[in-house]
């Protein structure tokens, strides 16, 4: 019989409701998989297949797992050994990310024989049967993790993909997922979401405010074209969830970003990251540099506004990819931002262009999230990361949540962009916290609308300090939950 526990994390309830879609989150940290560079959404899949159970791994389980990892997961320095084996006619099986690309012939026509790429082995021209691609069309986008069988049957032929078994959860029954929500209280469900992300919801440092802003990191996954920035001191785990939740989410660490990388490669005609992924994360944007800034900022502003971009000589590319920018911020002795009136003061110059800043949905106040410590790691039963990521991403195209927000939100004197941003964030919080849409107006105001307002208020504050035009309206955004007549 399923029951709700009101006082502690409901481990048994999670197991009863989600069955094989959940996992004891203490398994992964004790496995060594993460330190081997294996993302959580793959690591948890491997654990459940090879050493199912609960609690930290035993010495015999660790030994079994380590043997499997050494055989199945190639490291960078294994490249040449694997290539040598293939050159000698041996079959090699490994677990890795694989992508497929369609080549252009010199005359500009499309080659009917696509090629597979395996980045970890630096193999870029593997032949692959068409039926494998047809069965796994996500290979043509951001790629898919799975068990790959490789062979080179003739020395004058490229390496061939003989077989492929995908690992990622490919389909989620959203109606069933929403029905699961009814077994939990609002507080229990929020804690389940935190735990599934990899955070310990019972850690004393995570008060309700901190939990809200950690969950806000999921908004770009559940909402299409959701563009946001998080400002936080080092060590709050800004990039943690994005690195581990899905191959449909990609993270670009600080340094140089090129137009070819983001938009489209002028030489190969290959679509860039914004056209391939559901979420692109630019980390450490405070140190971001561009070879040719105008070639990036202009198309990027267009993309933030319309969901389309182009480079000269190419047709428009449409995408619903969300863009997340993560930046470090300095705090004062009270752990508040040093320049609270203009939070983007120390970021690259283009953030101060109001036409750019106004196109962002909001700013996540990462300074309100405690530093990530070892004891803050999830140790309860949560959703498996691959299922969790797919469930969130599957909600992107469901308009019921935006319709609910639009029907139950009343605005004061605000701009159209303010309204659109707040409705988008409120819709996202609904998807994360109330996927069954079973809530009261008070729930909506407290858990969805007010956090959405705060996210946008940080943008409004900076715009207010940067440009007189934005002082024509009140500084504070007024918004409330209401029951509008149909």
Number of helices: 18
Query: What is the molecular shape?
Result: globular
Number of domains: 2
- What's the β-strand tally? 18
Helicity level, as a percent range? 25-40%
Class of secondary structure makeup: alpha/beta
| Unreliable residue runs | 1-6
Strand content: 15-25%
**CATH architectural grouping of the largest domain:** 3-Layer(aba) Sandwich
At the first level of CATH, the class of the largest domain is Alpha Beta
Short description:
The chain is an alpha/beta fold and 486 residues long.
Report on this structure.
The protein folds into two domains: 96-166, no CATH class; 178-481, Rossmann fold (3-Layer(aba) Sandwich), CATH 3.40.50. It is 36% helix and 16% strand. It contains 18 helices and 18 strands. A five-stranded antiparallel β-sheet has the order 4-3-2-5-6. It has a five-stranded parallel β-sheet with strand order 8-10-14-7-15. It is globular. GO terms for molecular function: peptidase activity. Residues 17-150 form the BREX system Lon protease-like BrxL N-terminal domain. InterPro entries: BrxL-like, BrxL_N.
What key phrases describe this protein's structure?
5-stranded parallel sheet; hydrolase; BrxL_N; BrxL-like; 2 domains; alpha/beta; 18 helices; 16% strand; Rossmann fold; 486 residues; peptidase activity; 5-stranded antiparallel sheet; BREX system Lon protease-like protein BrxL
List the helices and strands and how they pair.
Elements lengths: L10 H8 L3 E3 L15 H11 L8 H14 L6 H9 L4 E10 L13 E4 L4 E5 L2 H6 L8 E8 L8 E7 L7 H8 L4 H12 L10 H8 L3 H4 L5 E5 L7 H5 L4 E4 L3 E2 L1 H4 L10 H4 L2 E4 L6 E2 L2 H14 L1 E2 L7 E2 L3 E7 L25 H4 L4 E4 L15 E3 L1 H10 L5 H8 L1 E3 L4 H18 L7 H26 L12 E3 L5
Parallel strand pairs: 7-14, 7-15, 8-10, 9-11, 10-14
Antiparallel strand pairs: 1-16, 2-3, 2-5, 3-4, 5-6, 12-13, 17-18
Helix pairs in contact: 2-15, 16-17, 17-18
